[in-house]
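Appendix C reproduces, verbatim, an entry submitted by the partner laboratory led by Prof. M.T., so that reviewers can inspect both the input and the predicted structure.
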Amino acid sequence: MPSFDRVLPVMLALLLGACVSPPRPDKSQVSTGSAGSADAQSAALYQRLDQDSKRYAGGLDLLRNGDSAGAQGEIKAALDDLRAAATRCAEVKDCDQQRFVAVFDNLLRMGVGGGPDQAAEGDTGGATPEATAESGENSPATVALPQLGRTVTLLKGRELGDIIALNGPVKAALEEWLTQYRPNLMDAYENYEYLRSRMWPEYEKAGLPEALLFGMLAKESGGKVHAVSRSGASGPLQFMYATGLRFGLGTVDGFDQRFDPQLAARANAAYINEQLAIFNNNLELVIGAYNGGEGAMQRRAGRGAEALSFWSPEVYYGVSQETREYVPMVLAAAWLFMHPQRYNLEFPKIAGRPGSIALKRPASLAELTVYLGQEGNVDDGWFRTLRHLNPRLDPQQQQPAGTRLLVPLRLEKTYARNCTSGNWPALAAELHAAVIPSPPPLALASARAKPPRTRTYVVRRGDSLSSIARRNACADVREIAAANGLHAPHYALKPGQTLKLPGC
């Protein structure tokens, strides 16, 4: 590569340093009214940023194809205009200088790595580490700015980054996600990556940003498909039963469709679009309505273009404490999904492309988990992922040969290699068939004479009610469920939950 390429990192580093400035004051009061002249100037600068980024990427293409002179002209022109736009941004009220910093950082990586293709593999902008060809990758944002990965998403024609106010509550929520809730955020991201092919296309069809979907999923359930709240909200996006019915989530053949990630995402997208129309595309009010009820939010904020900002005292202090915390947490999770590197955050690289297998022999999801072991260096095994991808199945019940199951694509070859013959299927079947012996009649008679006692058990990750019953020699799963207020067919459990074990 010509020597010109070697000076690119230096040029970009100088530009990157020039863009850094002290943070602006918090936008503690956000208006959703018409854009003023400052907003129009910011929008024009963002458009220049996008155009110059594409021009820079085109220059790198010329450089790889041997056109050094043409590359130099394109890249220099792009960098000159980017520098001028960044300087102007510092002078315009509310212009997001951090956006320029992020773009310069990405261009720096592209110049060092040898082109946008390498940048896409090594730095995905944090939204999706693995570049896939599945549905959802062709979003308007990706088409508009392919060299920036998925760091920019659109909501009704506006960039989500322009809508989210980094005010005090949102910054506090960012800190929570980055500190005590960081493990929850990582788990949510991992869960989402395996569910992405099922959920994101529903949002894409509805014209909604992926970052919003992730933010709501992270706060609602952490991506746990079978999550059930104390109030009865169920599924990955925590629909109440009546609201679920309103948006097409019923009970079919005994299966509660709120637990289906694809259908839940479709219903959630329909709800969001309905409320965006009511609240004049005010995202914070819509998120608040999802948590606290649209009727309550309308009474507090009003409707249409005259609706108050969620951050106005009349609304912010008028809603419940839960909703005051919920809205910033969703926005913060969405923001981190788009901009992890700004916060010293690195999401795990997940090979989540979807695949499927047809069972060659009868097996339960529990048995498959034993077959698969820790394939792919997955410390926790595959039980959770298999349950999430196949929510209609009882994980302990054997499925007949020929049953088609959804699995991550990477497991198709593993199943063919480990799960059709050999020691592992036999071992898994042996373990699954194990029966805890019943006590002899004399022991039963003695037990009946004694007053009944109730043991307790703390739920561990991967537990199911049937496995707990077997492990603790409990006679009836239904008795345990009744004692703890658990409902069929899923008997949703949470790690750390304490269960009463009557008669065990």
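The CA atoms of residues 387 and 395 lie 7 Å apart. Additional entries are available on request from the coordinating office.
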